[in-house]
Structures are given as structure tokens and as C-alpha cells.
Amino acid sequence: MAQTIRIGGGAKRPDKGSLGKRFARSVRLHWQLYVFIAPIFIFFILFHYAPLYGVQIAFRDYKAVFGITGSKWVGLKHFRDFFRSYYSMRLIVNTLLLNIFGLLWSFPIPIFMAILLNQLNNKRAKSFIQTIIYVPHFISTVVMVGVLFLFLSPTSGIINKALTSLGMKSIFFMIEPGYFRTLFIASDIWQHAGWNTILFIAALTGIDPELYEAASVDGASKTQKIRYIDIPHLMPIAAIMLILSCGSMLVSNTDKALLMQTPNNMSVSDIIGVYVYQQGLGKAQFSYTAAINLFVNVVNFITIMLVNFASKKLGETSLF
Amino acid sequence: MRRPMSQSALRHGSGYGRKTTGDRVFDIFNSVFWVVVVGIVIYPLWLVLIDSVSNPGDVYAGRVVIWPIGFSLEGYKAILASKQLLRSYLNSIIYTLSGTVFSVFLTMMGAYALSHPFPGKGAVNFFIIFTMFFSGGLIPSFIINRALGLYNNPLAMIVLGAVSVWNLMIARTYIQTNIPGELYDAAAIDGASHFKYFFRFVLPLSGVIMAVLSVYAGVARWNDYFTALVYIRDRNLLPLQTVLREALASLTSSAASLIEDSLKIDGIDVQAATRKAEVAKYCSIVVSTVPAVLLYVFMQKFFVKGVMIGSLKG
To answer: CA-CA 20 to 30 A from A233: which of A176, A311, B51, B174?
Structure first.
């Protein structure tokens, strides 16, 4: 084990031999680390890279009996089919709108909450609030949507009871297309806005207290401190979160949309993820839906690269 | 403000109630804001809880608003009689426990390796992070996993999604920033291998981050219904959430499958049965949600700390 000491010591490593030899020695010294990384490596090969290899079925007519590479090559047929189909426009628009409205609402709220929480003077109140607002994050999507169905039920739901007692008509929210996006986004915010403050609270905790003290000496009010200290400090992390969100504009929360979809709200609840699930697994149209998947992936990848590039050019933060 | 009041009072004399009017208005607004937010978060949870123990007729009529009416545990009795639910509950416990252990162990091993320099580490990092930006998608994954024999196999519930790039990076950052490199040097001088060092020092010193990873992995597994929807066909292997989904998120709610057992027994009064089914739904929500929330509450102490440490650099 004398060899390992040298590596740990770092600086003492003698720079003898060619690059190849040095590399070989280093590998010999660190073989154990390769053992540590091996399970992860295999995991990623099996569950991430093998499916990437399988993406080629988007250009083939996949039949299970012929396997992935044995199935007939059909080029861009499935992509053409998708874009010519009646559904493609509706799916893309629905997915985009759900994500854009979702981002507009659910992006600023956690930042706002983190700033206000940071300004609370009472430490115990602060930690109590933190404990409470994280709780909904731990509720499952199935339960969340189940609660929506129960509370919004036209016959027994508490919301409609309140509406009718105020003399209004009861509304069957879950089948009314006009309410789908609102309910989807509002329940998302209820569940995750509190949790999403964590990152911003961490960033605010990292601010040097002397900045606030200096501001107090200069007679700054709380709103001024927020404006000139908190917000500039939150910008980098907010920019990164925004860039990441832009990379998933066509990705959808399929689980939730699937649960909230009812025959009547199809016109707005039919989004790409749900369609891929229903056509791909329900009707075994593997190649066709793999093509849709690939299209989404490529668009997401290009978007995230463009946004990242633009953000870099503007002198703001970037991912890499 | 984070600094102690006394200190700020000494320095600026602001602790004697001589805050500016603007700041006082701000504080009032802020307090009101949080009272409202906490109310919005708690009330739906409370409502589900009181609905689950109230008299079905009153729940159905919407009279249960602030306090339970006609306390009864009928709903809980009904769902406890459902074999399907109990079976899936047990399945979920098994999937969650084994899946969490598997996930945390794999993540810690990988994170440990990535916290050390070794030849080819840059390539491995790229190899892992690339998957965040480009993935095969549902259908190619399904085809590959089916070929691997995971279709209708309970292992799918344990293995799939066990390692996430994000968790790997959080754990790596934690190890790098919280376990001093000198400790490894000292251990190596004493002749400890990476294996020995990992089990003797790294794991015992990583309690906080392992708690965080366990909550992440455990809750994700407990709450997951989609994996089972795609991969599990055998009804005896279904996890809790998938069974719940059939009972909860459906429009044809009147004949809830949850209490079909009891429906058979006193299946005369359909209306009463419908109301009972409604309460049974609330009960099933409580029973399925309590474990995840309790896990969070118990782990909460480490949790906020660990998440912050991990996220600072992320």
C-alpha cells in the first residue's frame, strides 16, 4: 500500500517516464476507484445509453421479432406521419402552453417566497414555516390529483358546496377544458413552490452579513436591501434554473397529465408525453412514438444550447 | 435578518422599536403573507384528515369544514378489509426499502469515486452528465428494459431510476467539502485501501447526506405509480400508488373498488355505500401519505442542512 501514499501526498509524485507509462501507473494505483465507479457505469450503460442506441427504431419499422437492428429501415417516414397527422399541432401547442404558463407562474413564486422568508425576524417562526411549506412536496401525484377530484366534485366537493351556498352554479372542474391548465399549474405550485425555495434560501444564507449591516448604517430600508442585495445575489442561480427549465419546454409531467385527463378535456390535456404513452405502449406503435420522443429530445437539446449561449453572450451566468 | 437582534441593536440602535415606518409596514405585510401561505398549505391536508374520520353523510353534504362531525373509523375499517390495498401496501414497503438501500449504496459508491482524482475522470463525468441533456425516452427504454427481462418483474420497481445524476452530484459535493482530504492521506499511510477507507470513514461521516438521499429515494419510490403502470402486469405485484390511482382518480367514482368487499356484505343501500366509498377515499389518502410525510418529518433535522450543503455548489 506504500504506493497509495504517494498519490495521497500528491505533490511528491515523481514525474518520470512517458505519458503512457505514467497513465498506466496511475491506473494501477487507482484500480479500486474503478471498482467503485463500475456499478454506476454499468447502470448508465444499461438504462441510459442502451435506450439511446435504441432510438434508431425511430427510423425503422420496429418489430420485436426482428430486434432493433433487424427491423426494416424506413428513414423519416414516422416523422412525416407525425407532422402530417391532425394531432401533431394540437399536441405541440398544448405541451408548450402548459409549460410556458407553468413557468411564468411557478418560476417567480419560490424566489419571492425565499426573499420574504429571509426577512422574517423570528427564527422559530421561520423554521416552523419552512417545515410546513415543504410537506406538500412529499405527497404523491396520484393523491394530489385524487384530492382535486374529491374537492372539486360537482356533487360532494367542498368547493362546489361553497359555490352553491353563495348562490352560484356548481362546476364540474375536472371535465371542463377551461380549468385544466389552471388546476394543473395551481396544484403544482401548492405542492412544490415551498420546496423550490430551498435553493434560493441557500443562496441568501450565503450572503455576507456585513453587506446588510453596511446597508443599515446607510439607512437602507428592508425593501431597499431586497432590491440591492438579495435580488442581485439570487440572479445567477435563478438564471441557471431558468436555462434548465427552457430545456424542457416540450417535456411534460406525463404522470400528472395522464391522471388529470378526462374524455372532455382532451382538447387541452392531450400533451406529447401522454400521447406517446397511449399510442406507444397502449397501441404498440413503438417506432412512431420513438420518433416523436426523438423530435422532442432534439428540440430540447437545441433550445437549452441556444438559451445557454444567449445567456453567456449577455454576460449572465451559463451552465458551461 | 439572520444576525441576532442584540448585535444589530448594539450597533445601530434599531432594537428599541425604532424601526422606520416603511420597515414596520413591510414586517406586517410579511407576517400576514406567511399566515395566509401556511393556511393555504395546511387547510387541504387538515380537510382530508377530518373528512376521513367523519360521518359519511356529513362529508357528502359538505358539512365537514373545520372540525370532524360524528367521529367514526368506518372508512378505515373498510379499507383495511380490502385485500388488494393491503397487498399493494406490503409491496410498496418492500419496493421502497430495497430500492432505497440499493439507490443510496450505489450513489455513495459512485460519489466517492468521483470525489477523488483518477485517470479518465473527466470522461466519466461527461458520460454521466450528458444523460441529463439527452435521453432515449420512454419507448426505447421500454424496449431495452423488456429485453433485459424487467417487464412484469418486481426488480423493475427497485432498479429503474435508482441513480440520478443530480443525487450523484450532491453526494460528491458533500464528500468533497465535508470529509477532509488529509483524512484519506492519513488512512493511506496507515495502509488503508479505498475499500477500507470508504466503509470505515466515508460512510460513517456521511450520515447527513445519506439521510437526504434516503428521503429522496424512499419518497420517490413510495410515490411512484408510473413505473408500475408501464412495467407491472401482475396485479399481485402492483404497488400502492397504482392501486390508489384506480380508486381515486376516476370519474366513475361511485363504485370505489376499495370497499367492494364491504359492498358485498351490505350491498342494499347504494347511496350509503357511495358515501362510505367517498370517506374510504379520504382514508386511503391518509394511509398512503402518512409514511412519506413522517419520513420527511423525522429526517427533517438533517434534511434542510444536507440539501443546502449539496445545493450550494450544484
So the answer is: B174
Q: What is the CA radius of gyration of chain B?
A: 26
CB contact under 8 A, A216 and B8: yes
User: Residues B209, B126: one domain?
Assistant: yes
Is there a single domain that holds both residue B181 and residue B146? yes
Helix B121-133 to helix A286-313 angle (10° resolution) is 110
> Measured between CB atoms, which of A50, A129, A212 is closest to B34?
A129
Using an 8 Å CB-CB cutoff, list chain A residues near B285.
143, 146-147
Q: What is the domain extent for residue B35?
A: 5-52
A211 close to B (CB below 8 A): no
Q: CA B266 → CA A252, B259, B261, distances in Å?
A: 44, 11, 9
A81 to chain B, closest Cα gap in Å:
17
In a domain, residue B119? The reply is yes
Closest residue in A to B30 (Cα–Cα): A116
Domains of chain A (ranges; CATH) run 2-73 (no CATH), 77-313 (1.10.3720.10)
What is the CA B260 to chain-centroid distance, rounded?
30
B38 → closest Cβ in A32, A132, A157: A132
**Count of C-beta atoms within a 10 Å radius of residue A226:** 17
Test A120 with B30 for CB contact under 8 angstroms.
yes
Specify whether B48 is located in the same domain as B79: no
- Torsions phi, psi of A238, nearest 5? -65, -40
Residues of chain B found within 8 Å of residue A288, distances taken between Cβ atoms: none
Written as tens digits, the pLDDT of chain B (314 aa) is 444 444 444 444 444 445 788 889 999 999 999 999 999 999 999 999 999 998 888 888 888 888 988 888 888 988 888 888 899 999 999 999 999 999 999 999 999 999 988 888 899 999 998 998 888 889 999 999 999 999 999 999 999 989 999 899 989 988 988 888 888 888 888 888 888 899 998 999 998 889 889 988 999 999 999 999 999 999 999 999 999 988 876 544 443 444 444 444 454 566 777 788 888 889 999 999 999 998 888 887 777 666 666 555 44
Q: How many domains does chain B have?
A: 2
DSSP B110-136: HHHHHTS--TTHHHHHHHHHHHHH---
Inter-chain touch A293–B11, beta carbons under 8 Å: no
- A319 in reach of chain B (CB within 8 A): no
